[in-house]
Amino acid sequence: MISPGGVPGQTMWRAPRLTHAVDAAISVPGSKSLTNRYLVLAALADGPCVLRRPLHSRDSALMIAALRSLGAVIDEVPGDGDFGPDLRVTPLPTGAREPAARTVDCGLAGTVMRFVPALAGLVTGTTAFDGDPHARRRPMGAIIDALRGLGISIDDGGAGSLPFTIEGRGGVRGGRLVVDASASSQFVSALLLVGARFDEGLHLEHVGKPVPSLDHVRMTVETLRSLGVAVDDSVPDHWHVSPGPIAAFDVAIEPDLSNAGPFLAAAVVTGGTIRIRNWPSGTTQVGDEWRRILPLMGATATLDGGTLTVTGGRSISGGVFADTSELAPTVAALCALATTPSTLTGIAHLRGHETDRLAALAAEITALGGRVQETADGLVIEPAPLHGGVFHTYEDHRMATAGAILGLAVEGVQVENIGTTAKTMPEFPELWAAVASTATASTTIESGARS
Ligand SMILES: O=C(O)C1=C[C@@H](OP(=O)(O)O)[C@@H](O)[C@H](O)C1
Ligand SMILES: C=C(OP(=O)(O)O)C(=O)O
């Protein structure tokens, strides 16, 4: 298992440059969003649970460590996944317990810093939360205000961000709560995940600019319903979670479709073919949007028999791409290699992600010769010939994979700290090398349009 504490090393990684088309069938590790939701729900469930083929990465290791420190028992058990063991979870103990003092390291994981604090209100004792240096700059105000609104004692020194300490009393009354979740959908998900365990359940209302990344809220609602929790989301910006048990479960975690994106992009960039195994026929993951997005760029995408096959076209078309959420860095890298201009909209909240992704993408693509402008809620990217150079990654896994995509088409791209991909996919460098090795003289790139 990945160590939850380690910040990956700062090394330069020479991105493979391909002059032939890739042709590969791969599996990708489990979904971060599903793994960390099911871990939280297992800790709150009414009996022991099993997660099959879960993600093993820094973010999941941090979640496991956090839930263990709150009292859940999480064991690795043999499974049939390609990327590590299954997980068996014995939930947090219920009823009166001796108060304890614990710490939770959130690293840079949004799911840990947003989802776990409410659980700390359900157990007895003090839990101190902190994370990586940049974690202290990620938006947390709505969670801190929400916990106070629920009567949970929290000391953040008035900063409205990490670090903070929560004094749990072993239970939360719940009821009506108003939040402004415009900075992150994870504020809504965090409260819905735990709402059924409040004495009176939860009636959550969002006020403010629209909630971003709504697919992730739908994932939360569908996951809760699948475990017998009644959630009424029939009125926009209102969610009612009825109090009651969360049914124990044994689930197989879907592959991470967002992390499949860079590999699918390799097909698009090289005019080759990538097949992703075990693509779900129905899913709440935003990564299923690749089947809609990549054809807009000139690729073909076919889902057949559980395999998604993407084949790149003769060149990459730009376009208007709205609300791409965590897919945006991959979309932006493809747009920087496109022959026509692109506009990405609806992603202002990416400024609060692992880094300010709009600023980082604009700076790093521009440094390679690209033409990128930040807008109020996204990016405008125009065609320009790119050249080699260092692609800085700001501890952001999706910046690292964006650099790798650009390096496929541009000679001499060096990605700083490729190890940061361990946040959600420690296997990235090896899988990328394996895919790159399939580009041989027999798989000629047809188009001369690529840089
Ligand atoms: O709930 C989740 O699992 C996530 C929600 C989204 O967060 P934001 O709403 O902050 O974008 C997404 O970007 C993140 O990668 C994962
Ligand atoms: C925004 C992301 O992560 P987090 O869960 O840390 O918010 C992401 O993975 O793109």
From TrEMBL:
Enzyme Commission number(s) of this protein: 2.5.1.19
Catalytic reaction list: 3-phosphoshikimate + phosphoenolpyruvate = 5-O-(1-carboxyvinyl)-3-phosphoshikimate + phosphate
ATP-binding found in the keyword field: no
Cross-referenced CDD domains: EPSP_synthase
Entry GO terms, CC: cytoplasm
Annotated active site: E326 (proton acceptor)
Occurrences of domain Enolpyruvate transferase (ranges): 20-430
InterPro entries, alphabetized: Enolpyruvate_Tfrase_dom (IPR001986), Enolpyruvate_Tfrase_sf (IPR036968), EPSP_synthase (IPR006264), EPSP_synthase_CS (IPR023193), RNA3'P_cycl/enolpyr_Trfase_a/b (IPR013792)
Molecular function as annotated in GO: 3-phosphoshikimate 1-carboxyvinyltransferase activity
Residue positions binding 3-phosphoshikimate: K32, S33, R37, S184, S185, Q186, S213, E326, H353
Subcellular location(s) of the protein: Cytoplasm
Biological process annotations from GO: amino acid biosynthetic process; aromatic amino acid family biosynthetic process; chorismate biosynthetic process
Keyword Amino-acid biosynthesis listed: yes
Keywords in alphabetical order: Amino-acid biosynthesis, Aromatic amino acid biosynthesis, Cytoplasm, Transferase
Pathway, per record: Metabolic intermediate biosynthesis; chorismate biosynthesis; chorismate from D-erythrose 4-phosphate and phosphoenolpyruvate: step 6/7
Residues given in the record as phosphoenolpyruvate binding sites: K32, G110, R138, Q186, R357, R398, K423
Subunit field text: Monomer.
Role summary: Catalyzes the transfer of the enolpyruvyl moiety of phosphoenolpyruvate (PEP) to the 5-hydroxyl of shikimate-3-phosphate (S3P) to produce enolpyruvyl shikimate-3-phosphate and inorganic phosphate.
Family classification: Belongs to the EPSP synthase family.
Protein name (database record): 3-phosphoshikimate 1-carboxyvinyltransferase
Species this chain originates from: Arthrobacter bussei
